[in-house]
Amino acid sequence: MELEKLLGELARPAATKMVLVVLDGIGGLPVPECGGKTELEAAHTPNLDALAQRSELGLAHPVLPGITPGSSAGHLALFGYDPLKYIIGRGVLEALGIGFPLEPQDVAVRANFATVRHTPEGIVVTDRRAGRPATEHTAKICALLQENIPEIEGVPVFIRPVKEHRFVVVFRSPELGEQVADTDPQAVGAPPLPPRALTPEAAKTAAVAAKFLERLAALLKDEPATNYALLRGFSRRPQLTLFPERFKVRAGAIAVYPMYRGLASLTGMELLPVAGETIAAEMASLKENWDGYDFFFLHVKGTDSRGEDGNWEGKVKVIEEFDRLLPEILALGPDALVITGDHSTPAVYRGHSWHPVPFLVHSRWVRPRRETQGFSEAACAAGTLGHFPLLYTMNLLLAHAGRLTKFSA
Amino acid sequence: MELEKLLGELARPAATKMVLVVLDGIGGLPVPECGGKTELEAAHTPNLDALAQRSELGLAHPVLPGITPGSSAGHLALFGYDPLKYIIGRGVLEALGIGFPLEPQDVAVRANFATVRHTPEGIVVTDRRAGRPATEHTAKICALLQENIPEIEGVPVFIRPVKEHRFVVVFRSPELGEQVADTDPQAVGAPPLPPRALTPEAAKTAAVAAKFLERLAALLKDEPATNYALLRGFSRRPQLTLFPERFKVRAGAIAVYPMYRGLASLTGMELLPVAGETIAAEMASLKENWDGYDFFFLHVKGTDSRGEDGNWEGKVKVIEEFDRLLPEILALGPDALVITGDHSTPAVYRGHSWHPVPFLVHSRWVRPRRETQGFSEAACAAGTLGHFPLLYTMNLLLAHAGRLTKFSA
């Protein structure tokens, strides 16, 4: 029996509360110039350290050892969806990232403005990013396109700016397959590729996309740089059994960044309002909504952003900020609490990495390690949970919250 | 290649002896009122502790992290059968629990005596457990039923009491499918559900079961409480390659409780006689049978029973009792010895739990941990075996006993 089916059969409602705190990109690496410490080791975290003493620690692999996950893969695992089974396409991810309300039938495409030159043999790409236009310029062009291309052959079209040369196109129709090849030739001097259907069901999508490019080229023919577009990552929302149904919980998501709100909403969690962008504002939302939900996903973005920037000290500060607020979660008395990440983002690495993520689970049913320890990569490596797939996060949360019945007789 | 096929191909006979000791429900949780210790930590176990120094320790997951296994799932894993692949139905388990010799063709059903009331619209259930009759009463009624219903439409029927309102019905015929829906409406005031075939192959089973209920109702119509029965868990023995054949061993099982004897016998192990119900009696059986077998499954029930009762001290005492007798096993000089459980049953949790089970393997080929350690959950969490699926128990036993050839060239 598959894990997904198994959990669905064993999950039962209960009067218990669960909190899943995701410190995005929490895992780090030791930095010689910073006393040889990781961000978690250097941070002054009396509350996390005290909690670690009364918790089980371990290291969790978002996908597999050595595999660096994108944000969507890490979060899918955290929510109990196998990231090797459910793939979120780049078009969908880009749409989620700007908070676009994707419907199940939508085909989303990640688009780049590009510059093309006309030659006797046809057009060729001269700049795959159109000289990286300002975001404002992209927004203006997208508005122009949206006004002139509201639909193609009866298919509603949505055009939204993202950042610099990037924008999103969404085609909405139940008749569209999503298997269409990228049009980016990946080389300057080459002609853009036509949108080619990879399955019979995607024929109409390819035709609509080709017409979209035709009309876009006509509308932008006098633009000096942003006179064409390359389309990538045609995709639809993955079809998955929704989180509240699978786990028999009322699930609320507390996140500030659109992509994470989008990921939570893909799985059917309710998005809870947050008044501001701080961790304190997220905590306030948790308190306000405490009675209305059984499960809370609380996402902290700063740890990942500082890590991506290579800002070791900044990441330490975000960890300390969370630590100061941790007592507010504990005061609510969750029956089961997990604090972990969706992947590691070591500041010294300046990006997502493959290193397993520190993981803490707290409930009244834990086997803590006796020896003094804080919450760090090293303490987690020596923790009583050992190494395990991050996909088992929901198993552990549900078990510790008394929400899984016994398997088999 | 699947593990099961792999082991089958690699296993070879050898002149070595293996012992698998299952301390049922051995894993525990720390209890503040008991010095913050688990049962294993508190128990005075000089022999286990000394053995742990010369062994590899680890923590094993019977099914998956967070999943609490029933006894059958844990034992299937121990015997090398994937518990997510081989499911033992409730009817079969109930039959095993009373030592009924199930044949491969038998469909076993877990039955409850119930009370029904006659209304103009038909019968409705007024007590799903018939007021919990005394076991003696159930035995008397079962004898009456057996006498009057020896067969139905040529299908032999076996009716056996279990405890209080519970009994077992077995239909024996090669023509019977087992996919029949439960008849328990799970609510008082509702009519019992008819035995409904869920597959075409089960049509005859459903018809025979319906006739069984009809005749039962007629025979018991004057009983004040036990005047009807609800049927659940129609099931057949799982079809599996037998243990002695898979592993090329002569396998003997030493267990006192019928369910564990039944599980062992399902896999084709021989049941060895035990003169009494004590661990000492089991040890005597081990010694007596030492020359006749290559593999011994030795099951200790007390650890689980005390755990289920919430009797922390009682569980400690059973562990100490086993420890005193452990030298008798060592004196026999097994080539490979595993001491573990089928699941954890922390006394403070009063039931099976999802926590991984302490695991010890001893042979001349071990990598022990250098630091002084006893045999406890914490020592196993820090052990050289790490965390692993309990399903690999037979891999380890066979390997340490020199009974697995090299895989691939």
From TrEMBL, chains A, B:
GO annotation, biological process: glycolytic process
GO molecular function, one term: phosphoglycerate mutase activity
Keyword Isomerase among record annotations: yes
CDD domains cross-referenced by the UniProt entry: iPGM_like
Catalytic activity: (2R)-2-phosphoglycerate = (2R)-3-phosphoglycerate
Occurrences of domain Metalloenzyme (ranges): 17-391
EC top class named in words: isomerase
Keywords tagged on the record: Glycolysis, Isomerase
Role played: Catalyzes the interconversion of 2-phosphoglycerate and 3-phosphoglycerate.
PANTHER family linked to this entry: COFACTOR-INDEPENDENT PHOSPHOGLYCERATE MUTASE, METALLOENZYME DOMAIN-CONTAINING PROTEIN
Similarity comment text for this entry: Belongs to the BPG-independent phosphoglycerate mutase family. A-PGAM subfamily.
Protein name, UniProt field: Probable 2,3-bisphosphoglycerate-independent phosphoglycerate mutase
Source taxonomy: Bacteria, Bacillati, Bacillota, Clostridia, Thermoanaerobacterales
